[in-house]
Amino acid sequence: MRLRALVKRMLVHSPIPYSERTDALVRLSLLKSWIARYKPHPYFGSRAGLFSFVAGTGLATVPITFLEFGVFKGASIHAWTTLNTANESEFIGFDSFEGLPEAWVNVGKTFPPGAFSTRGSSPVLGDQRVRFVKGWFRQTLPPFLSHFSTEKPLVVHCDADLYSSTLFVLCKLDAVMKPGTVVMFDDFTSMLHDFRAWEDYTRAFGREYEVLGAAGHMYYEHVAMRITQ
């Protein structure tokens, strides 16, 4: 006990400052056990390949509700409008279009507040099934959910980058994410953000899931899951 107390005291009073980047690097070791547990295969070299595979699991021709958090220039939501051909589908993108509200620190780089801004402009995709909800998630998602319901298969794409934003979205969506809901992440191995938000959410709410597949040039940046409970 004395040794444990001594170690805690040394850590608390250490002159070495905390580093988010070092913390993220250390947490990459958690990915090994996650991969061993969920066996995320098949694995694709690109996000496009993963999207196409997931759409092919029964989501290509039936009406779906696609919710995206973090739209930027609309590349991923556009990809899904081409993969799904049902006229009754709806694609709803949430974004402030003002960039990150806080710094995003990952292993390789830090993106400052305001990064990924489009100066308030939402993309023009030329598909009548698409609409955007402009503003910060904490301001727009609660009123949206107060009148939202769908009987269509639900697909959620998380590309908000930040832990705080992603965890907020997942917790608020919990009531509508029934078993069968597909949840995808664009930066899953951002260990202090997407990965941590998903782990914290699923543990806190007792959710279980299967991994449909993953993609990325180096490791599991893009991951698709299906909620089973």
What would your notes on this structure say?
Helix 6 (137-146) packs parallel to helix 7 and helix 7 (163-173) packs parallel to helix 8. The protein has helices at residues 2-12, 20-27, 29-38, 47-55, 75-83, 137-146, 163-173, 194-205; strands at 43-44, 65-69, 90-95, 104-105, 110-111, 130-134, 154-158, 182-185, 209-215, 222-227. The N and C termini lie far apart (40 Å). The strands form 2 sheets. An 8-stranded mixed β-sheet has the order 1-9-10-8-7-2-3-6, sandwiched between helices. With 229 residues, the protein is an alpha/beta fold. It has 8 helices and 10 strands. The relative contact order is 0.17. Strand 9 and strand 10 form a beta hairpin.
Name the descriptors.
229 residues; alpha/beta; eight-stranded mixed sheet; two-stranded antiparallel sheet; 8 helices; 10 strands; 35% helix; 19% strand; globular
Concise description?
This protein has 229 residues and is an alpha/beta fold.
The radius of gyration is: 19 Å
Provide mean pLDDT, rounded: 92
What is the terminal-to-terminal distance?
40 Å
> Could you name the ranges where pLDDT drops below 50 across 5 or more consecutive residues?
none
Shape: globular
* Overall strand count: 10
Q: What level of helicity do the residues show?
A: 25-40%
Give the biggest sheet: 8 strands, mixed
Structural class: alpha/beta
Proportion in β-strands: 15-25%
Question: Tally the helices: what do you get?
Answer: 8
Task: Kindly report the spatial arrangement of strands forming the biggest sheet.
Answer: 1-9-10-8-7-2-3-6
Query: How would you spell out the order of helices and strands?
Result: HHHEHEHEEEEHEHEHEE
